[in-house]
Amino acid sequence: MNFDKELDARGLNCPLPILRCKKSLAELTSGQVLKIVATDPGSVKDFQAFAKQTGNELLSSAEGSGEYTFFMKKK
Amino acid sequence: MDEKKMAIIATKGTLDWAYPPMILASTAAALGYEVQVFFTFYGLQLLRKDLSGLKVSPLGNPGMPMKMPFGPKWFQSINWNIPNAVQAIVPGFESVATGLMKQTIRNKGVASIPELRDLCQEAGVKFIGCQMTVDLFGFEYDDFIEGIEYGGAAMFLEFAGDADICLYI
After folding, report:
1. What is the CATH number of the domain that holds B140?
2. Is the peptide bond before B62 cis (omega within 30 degrees of 0)?
3. What mean pLDDT is predicted for residues B96-120?
4. Is residue B41 helix, strand or coil?
5. Does B61 fall in a domain?
6. Number of structural domains chain B divides into
7. Looking at residues B99-124, what average pLDDT do you find?
8. CATH number for the domain including A60?
9. Contact flag A50-B31 (C-beta cutoff 8 Å)
10. How far is B107 from chain A (nearest CA, A)?
11. Residues in chain A within 8 Å Cβ distance of B26
12. 3-state secondary structure at position B149
């Protein structure tokens, strides 16, 4: 998937992936896509909840070899 | 739709109990909430410029696992069951426990309290220091970080009365 910016949130624990995501999204314009890579298993539900509450769209969420990759489209 | 609001009363002044208000306030702000945290009694310790005095005490705290943040995995998984009576008479026990906890926090990628506090302030969380506690404990405004308002119960309730979430921590 194409993306405009990547956030490396590996090794970070709650709530840092969400807070860093919020910051990174602020640097994008509406419609641009942020790729996030995290290792916190709790981040899966957290990013779903973040998207639901902020109106940013979670395009995809995938897990592989202990890493979670998310694509978030800015509102 | 109006912005959602969250009001928190932070009453605890230890390293462990510094986390819930700071995590919830910073996260809520990231989710678009308007957040106010009212720091009263020991909670005021969380607003000090110098947070190195925040400690965690395993004494009389049976819920706290006592594990070592270094060494091989089998060693790290041991829960050291140290009797209260021993903890109480060993000088510096609390400082050692705090040092180990801080190391664990770093190892696990958990944010530090100064970091979370900065993130709260950057995100526009409003910190209110309890004026009565400042007077009661003989603190000086100079002990605390910039950007705090000082007020009392009525000031907090004015905001909390309209809040969607109100927590006492």
Report:
1. 3.40.1260.10
2. no
3. 94
4. helix
5. no
6. 1
7. 94
8. 3.30.110.40
9. yes
10. 9
11. 15, 19
12. strand
